[in-house]
Amino acid sequence: MIRQLMMAAATLVAAMSMAFAQVDVNKADAAALDSVKGIGPSTSKMILEERTKGGEFKDWADFSRRVKGVGDKRAVKLSQAGLQVAGKPFDGAAPATAARAAPAAKPAAAVKPAQPPSKM
């Protein structure tokens, strides 16, 4: 029983470390790119072809210019999923742990003061 609990805990720790792994687009192979949520086989192929043709990506702006379909919105999502360009996350992207945090509470609606009972 204890051995099973230890194995379950070890598996959970390993899975969590993989979920928050950082993948640098300049160093990753197709498998590593595919492991990033939001990148599939066709996008990873496009990234690798562009990197081979034009060299390493200098920054996120260079990456967005050269890889079709990657604008600011998608760059934020990819960065939150662990993708980095030249070792840096996309500016304006929340860290991966904050991205999964609960949303901020909404402000309370204004409450009308109770009206005094009318006198009849």
UniProtKB/TrEMBL annotation:
Q: Which InterPro entries match?
A: Endo/Exo/Phosphatase_dom_1, RuvA_2-like
Q: Return the Gene3D superfamilies for the record.
A: Photosystem II 12 kDa extrinsic protein (1.10.150.320)
Cross-referenced SUPFAM superfamilies: RuvA domain 2-like (SSF47781)
Q: Which UniProt keywords apply?
A: Signal
Say which domain of life the source belongs to.
Bacteria
List the signal peptide residues: 1-21
What is this protein identified as?
Helix-hairpin-helix domain-containing protein
